[in-house]
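pasting for ref
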Amino acid sequence: MALPESWAVGISMLIGILALAVALQKSKRIFGFDPGNQKMQEISRSIHDGALTFLKKEYLVFSGFVIIIAMLLLYFGSWKQSVGFVAGGFTSALAGYIGMGVATKANVRAAQGAKKSLNQGLLIAFSSGSVMGLAVVGLGVLGIGIFYLLFRDPYLIYSFGFGASSIALFARVGGGIYTKAADVGADLVGKVEAGIPEDDPRNPAVIADNVGDNVGDIAGMGADLFESYVESIIAAMVIGSAAGLALGGSGVVLVIFPLLLSALGIVASIIGMGFVKASGEKAQRALDRGVWASSLIVALGSYFLATKVIPGEQGVRIFFSVLSGLAAGLVIGISTEYFTSNGRRPTKAVAEASLTGGATNIIEGLSLGMASTVIPVFAIGAAILVSYHFGGLYGIAIAAVGMLSTLGMTLATDCYGPVADNAAGISEMAGLGGNIRKRCEHLDSVGNTTAAMGKGFAIGSAALTALALFASFVQVASQLAGKEFLISITSPLVIVGIFLGALLPFIFSSLALHSVGKAAFSVISEVRRQFRSIKGLRQGNAKPDSNRCIAIVTGAALKEMMLPGLLAVLAPLIVGYFFGVEALGGLLVGATATGFLLALFMANAGASWDNAKKYIEDGKLGGKGSEAHKVAVIGDTVGDPMKDTAGPSLNILIKLISIVALVALPFLV
């Protein structure tokens, strides 16, 4: 390697600092835009205050959990693991806090920007998403670099990933319960029963719904992909440290390469963000151009990086592993866009099914969700085969890093969606007029698709990351046992573990969906009560008590997130302790396979139901208020907790159980 180890890590960390500096610069630019009139600012302030109030209460719960786990790691493990766990949890929470804080200030500015042009509304919303994306990758590379320089042992950095995963799961489940309980309650009573538009200021649950977009789809998604990002890098570093000589290079070279590749991806993402402009064209095309530009830069740059850093033919082989992961991510994004966009045939078919009733709408959406799993499975399967052929287990881990290398850009397009959604809501509540509302709805519709693509990307990267973690699990178990550790499907313990693992995503999803249902029931009851008891509310002559709905969903989300979160942490420990490491390996296999498919199915079906509703609201098949629209709203409310609570939470589940298994291995072998 041309650069000494410390220099290479230092360069990666400097690029991480660059990402944070660019994020800060973008934040200042966003705050410089016009926040609109007094009414718009009041609505935005309510959303901002509600989101931060929830986040502070959620983080208070997190802190208790973090302290308990840190003390256990200190007692049973080492102070290094304890410090790493706390740092990982803190960094994950910080990334979410930064992204959401900016998003809740950008929403009103995006709505005001849409008054001037579609492009200005797009750029403000996208710039807000860019802050989230750059904060995640910057903090991720910086955190891993610091801990590697301190400990010089990649395995010890798993505790950093454990902290990130733990916070991510609670953030994703808690935020998901919050946002979907508010959304379902607002839609069912507002659109179906009261017959008022989406985001109508008379609806008491509308502010809570807009708050939920931020706590679920920005803070939650940011934490989700932060832990995928850091864990894919850590897994590649651990495997690289042990497999370096076998691959024809030195262990140090292969340990450092994932950090350098991630740093390259940060630079590519920053450049790609400059390609996002929507002057005279559709917003979707502008966002796609940024993603493709970033991916192309990584594809070209990784060849030179791999061949310069990794000596001999192996550098070229590792380049193909990077390329396989990068390509798989793009294929999953294209597939998700095809199945969930309201401009494509599959989602139009779901909308048309609404003409014949709720049953056909639900059946068509379920069918679409199941069919949508085919292409991502083939894409991930191809990436695994190609990356393993060229780089062995290390190649698979590098494919995961390659897929996530452009996360700064990909997450920016994802987190753009909730800001655009909030902007549409503010334009409706503030009465900005039909033309402005139409522009904001166009940005929101694109945001639904980019959010679905982001979830597909997150699920695909979770599968590759979980596989890399599993490879590391087998490798570490072999080292600790002093012999080769094999998982044979002829072993009864392995079979039992596989079945328990396959069961886990279903139980987890059941708990998450049930929690949304319970919380939504409370919201619906409260909205109905206010429509009955507050005189003049239906006529717009009185203000709803939005704070009451916010308090209901906040309390429900914080209470209901605990059981699914504890299940993910305790399941691998219980199986490993009572059935052994073989059964634990089977648990990881079963949970990864089932969780991957179930997450894809729920995320894509839910997104399609949502965009089918949007398709009708655009004036098709009878438009707003028609029977088809009412049916589509029901389909959307069924899909909401699938795509925004249970589905994306499975990403974290399959990674968290792997990381818990890895951290617990020394105590189990």
